[in-house]
Amino acid sequence: MKKNTNWEYAPAPEAAKIAKIAKRYDHFINGKWTPSQSGKTFRTINPATGRKLSEVADGNDADVDAAVKAARAAYEGLWGKMSGRERGKYIYRIARLMQERAREFSIIETLDGGKPIRESRDIDVPLAANHFFYTAGWADKLEYAFPNRNPSALGVAGQIIPWNFPLLMAAWKIAPALATGNTVVLKPAETTPLTALKLAEIIADSGLPEGVVNIVTGAGTTGAAIVNHPDVNKVAFTGSTSVGKFIQQTIANTDKRVTLELGGKAANIILEDAAIDQAVEGIVNGIYFNQGHVCCAGSRLFIQESVYEEVIWKLKSRMRTLVVGDPLDKNTDIGAINSKEQLKTIQKYIQLGQEQGGDMYQPTCKLPSAGNWCPPTLFTHVTQSSVIAQEEIFGPVLAAQSFRTVPEVISKANNTPYGLSAGVWCDKGARLFQLTTQLDAGVVWGNTFNQFDPASPFGGFKESGFGREGGLHGLAAYLEM
């Protein structure tokens, strides 16, 4: 009798009931829960099941105006006059409250966004809290951070965040704005508003003065109202390149400051002397983390010709071990695609990749009957001109190419309108640094990928935007020098 060598993990689901999700959420304006002036709401959906999680207020120009007025009053009142030391206490308190409720945050992030609970629990929530801790420490030291510059706050910051890292992006935006003395009007993505609204609960519990942080929910028109509002001093946006271009055009004739963190098409480069097993793990982390819903995802893989077959073989073997399924299960590696619309976009690119001559590989896996799912996908024999090698897919789709020489791979890696991130795998440090200095990318990882730290600035250039978030650079973006 043949032994069954296929090991299966027993289900290990997180308890969803721990998360307290209200049936309806209003805007958080001036420290109070405020219904939309139009009375309209929209549904937020669990992408793994298709079931409704909650009803959320749909903001319009009047709601945004009320939020901006509250933020302006707080800036010109108590918050604007408060010392950096006192501001830091509030920010620190928010961070501690996030830690205390970390489990609930991670469950809501997974329910609303579809990402695996392990990622929400181990990456998103702790890193979001760390951003508040980090900036709290700088709140009373700005004159030392920027000596002889006389730093001062800009005023009211309008902030628009995407759906792929809802809580983390809220922390990236809110924490530095508060530490530098600004007030905030934030709009979360319409498909993932729940952790931002849970953060509003914590902000209220922290005792932060009314109007310092305001959260208005809605779709693109709500974000446009923030960008167009004449009393907003700073616009911070993370999202698609097309929307980023629109924002830049909109504020061109104003004195508003702006930072844009937009799309990417990162090159992940494997040199022949790299530690192959380690590199394969880095490839998987680079593209299949968060279902590929990552602006800095290593979606273009460049492998030196002498190790190409070995890397592809090991990569396919590793892909067969990835668990696709219930995001609340602690065994899951790849969760649900965030929305039906995004799933259609990913499927369109997969079809284009096949039509343009790429060889597609997807491991055999049983997908749930309900929800939005896409198995991890690898394309080989991809050309530089292929659509899947040029355009951002924002899904678990990897396009692999080979190269012979370092100058060749530098040319290929830089042949993109984006410039957000890249990765290099190499045994020799000198060679690694020589290569990384020639890559057109704002962030380059060496022998790792998708590593973030609150003290390290993040951002890109070209069509990946401009400005930095994190570190002292992220604080400087909210200061008049």
Provide a short characterization of the protein structure:
It contains 17 helices and 20 strands. By secondary structure, the chain is α/β, with parallel strands linked by helices. It has a seven-stranded mixed sheet, sandwiched between helices.
Describe the structure.
By secondary structure, the protein is an alpha/beta fold. It has two domains: 266 residues, Aldehyde Dehydrogenase, Chain A, domain 1; 180 residues, Aldehyde Dehydrogenase, Chain A, domain 2 (3-Layer(aba) Sandwich), CATH 3.40.309. The protein is built from 17 helices and 20 strands. The strands form five sheets. Strands 14-15-16-13-12-17-18 form a seven-stranded mixed β-sheet, with helices on both faces. α11 links the parallel β12 and β13. α1 packs across α9 and α3 runs antiparallel to α5. The protein is globular and about 65 Å long.
The CATH superfamily title of the largest domain: Aldehyde Dehydrogenase, Chain A, domain 1
User: Beta-strand percentage?
Assistant: 15-25%
The counted number of beta strands is 20
Which structural class is indicated by helix and strand composition? Answer: alpha/beta
Biggest sheet descriptor: 7 strands, mixed
